[in-house]
Amino acid sequence: MLRSGVYNMQNVTAVTSAKGGVGKTTITAALGAMLADRGKKILLIDGNSGFRNLDIVLGVSKKLVFDMADIIRGSCNIDKAILCCERFNNLFLLPAVQNNENRLSSSVMKHLVFLLSKCFDHVIIDCPVENDFSADVIFASKVLIVVTADPVCLRVSSLISEKLESKFDVEKRLVVNRFSKKCFLKSNVISDFDEIIDFIGVQLLAIIPEDDRVKIDCGKGLVCPKTGPAANAFHEMSVRFAQMF
Ligand SMILES: Nc1ncnc2c1ncn2[C@@H]1O[C@H](COP(=O)(O)OP(=O)(O)OP(=O)(O)O)[C@@H](O)[C@H]1O
Ligand SMILES: [Mg+2]
């Protein structure tokens, strides 16, 4: 088993989902930005080897030269590979490898994350959707499962939750993203939130509404609305997240 008492990864959180496009990267960036805004030193890790995009969402892609594989190869030191996201104080990014062939093995990744976790208040990993678990989910002590409130997503997400339950000792929380009351009522399949929570069997952390103002500006990155329902929901999510520690 990858987790062991030697590696204390209490401040490492994985953001995952069973279905693509539900908002993992958005939630990772928004949570990181909110926590950093309150003075915490935050490292976001892009776990999407070969499909990295957290650099775009954070608006730092032009600065990207090195990635996590360069650290391991010795092509650069850790400070060079980690990018400072100037728009958000205290927010840093470790980019994923561009080429999936250079992907780090889970044991190397685990060592690297362990070392980095000592230098930050929180390390949050944006994990890809994979058939089994992304290796990054395995050693995180907290896992946020992002879902949308539709029956297909909920069905597959309940399987992720079961697998995590049986395999690893992690604290899990549910984030319902892109919620729209109108669509929810119209779907006629799920009656209320309790049903979602019971179905997945994971405690709720946040409900983030569908909001047109949550979008990626190609030059600047994620536009986190300052006001409105999504802004409030992101804020509440970060407060509740901080209370988990
Ligand atoms: N609450 C929201 N309201 C409106 N749009 C949203 C919201 N959350 C995410 N989106 C949009 O949904 C799209 C998918 O989000 P995102 O890239 O974060 O998903 P993902 O789970 O990381 O996808 P992938 O599985 O491909 O990595 C993006 O265009 C994003 O801007
Ligand atoms: Mg993503």
Radius of gyration: 17 Å
Low-confidence stretches: none
Which bin fits the share of residues in helices?
A: 25-40%
Overall tally of domains: 1
Distance between the termini: 24 Å
The backbone outline, from C-alpha atoms, is globular
Strands ordered across the widest β-sheet = 3-4-2-5-1-6-7-8
Total strands: the figure is 10
In terms of DSSP E residues, the strand content is 15-25%
CATH topology: Rossmann fold
What is the gist of this entry?
The chain has 245 residues and is an alpha/beta fold. It is built from ten helices and ten strands. The longest helix is centred in the middle third of the chain and has 17 residues, at 151-167.
Structure explained in plain terms:
With 245 residues, the chain is of the alpha/beta class. The protein has a single domain (12-242), classed as Rossmann fold, CATH 3.40.50.300. It has helices at residues 24-37, 54-57, 68-73, 78-81, 106-117, 135-139, 151-167, 181-187, 193-200, 229-242; strands at residues 12-16, 42-46, 83-84, 91-94, 122-126, 142-148, 171-179, 204-209, 215-217, 221-223. Helix 7 links the parallel strand 6 and strand 7. It is globular, with a radius of gyration of 17 Å. The model has no long low-confidence stretch (mean pLDDT 87). Bound molecules: adenosine-5'-triphosphate (ATP) and magnesium ion. The site of magnesium ion (MG) has 5 residues, from helix 1.
